[in-house]
From TrEMBL:
Signal peptide: none annotated. It comes from Kaistia nematophila. Coiled coil: none annotated. PANTHER family: GLYCOSYLTRANSFERASE, GLYCOSYLTRANSFERASE TAGX-RELATED. Residues 47-176 form the Glycosyltransferase 2-like domain. It comes from the Bacteria. This is Glycosyltransferase family A protein.
Amino acid sequence: MLTRLETSRSGILASPGIARRETALTIGGLATSRLATAGEVKLPKVSFIVRNWNYGRYVGRTIDSIQAQDYPNFEVVIVDNASTDDSREVIERHVGDDPRFRVIHSDINLGPLGGALLGLEHATGDFVAFVDSDDTLLSNFASTHIQVHLASRLNVAFTSSTAIETGPDGAMLNGHRARTQMRREEIATGLRAAEIVPRLPSIDDNAFAVLSRHTRLIQPLSAEWPWSPGTANMYRRFILDMLAPACRAADLPKLSADGHYNRLGHLLGGSAVIDLPLSTYRIHGSNFAASVPSLAFLGSDAGPATRFRVLRMREIMRVFVANAADFSARIGEKRYWAALGVLFEQGGLRSGQDLAEWKRDQFLDEQVRHLAATFGASRTARKLAEFLPKPLLRSSLDALHGSNWPAHARLELHIGAARQWHAQLKRFVRKRRARLSALLSPTGQP
């Protein structure tokens, strides 16, 4: 793969207006210029990484929306994935001589995740947003995300805002993109008090109050997908570096940045959902993730990304297992194993096709060997038996032990299977009781 760096300049425009806005950052109503040594407390840099492939008809509006941000400290890396339309000319025309932009042309189509990784090689920001070139940002996108990161009750791996659904011409189809409703996963609502957190000048008291009411922190072990797609997410850069994918080059074009980083980032550091529209999601029939408007009771549509669900979970698990020693030390071994169970659940453990995908090219055998080397064979067998189907786990343990299965490994396999059956029974009983209670008390009263 060959790349060509079109524009090497980066950084923010050094205009007097931007300088004044930066110094207006406040804490407790006082300007940081009065509280800290010059340059010690300043706004973090945001890197927008735009991935484009043959979206010349849309990418110009995407660039314009980034240039219109009211947040002063950002850079933009545009990765053109070997477009064959007029994308190159459109990008050049809209970027112009803006020094905050650099453009990279790839000789091959790397796909959404591959383009994101190439962009990351050239990004220098503290926070990163991967922008799809058929979407646009509202002017307060970056400032709102950064304000939540600076004022959140808990420091989280990434934030995800609401996206307005539009058609090809920008006409609104829905005021937001429907997503999984948050239930027990929601653990806190609101930001820290406005008077004690760093405040951006573009977020006044009224805007901060609205933002606080509509920000929710989600538990790290959520098995749902409460986030908006692609463009609507902003990540801490160091989290992205920790979670770099290790998949084969042939699989890279089948994967997406949010599909990879949201699950992993959330399992490690949690996330925050901002229930305010800060970007648009343009629906034009050929979207990678979702190509029709969302409806509350319809479920997800069959965009190309949905065909690679198990592959995506495999590659997420490859990273999670390869870093087992580090991650389990950071989040605790109990939470690590619970997170591993969530990944298997999301990847599917019921259909023969899903199970075959887990076993393809000895993938699961490789993961079991690595886990056994980290936690010990006995403990690995016991923990995996709590959520893996017995035949699937047995085949991997055969690969691990050959014909010399230790007696304790056999025992753990059977005990773990019994625990799995008992847990399933308890879930079934709880659901039946809840359903019966709802039938007997339709108003929710006892």
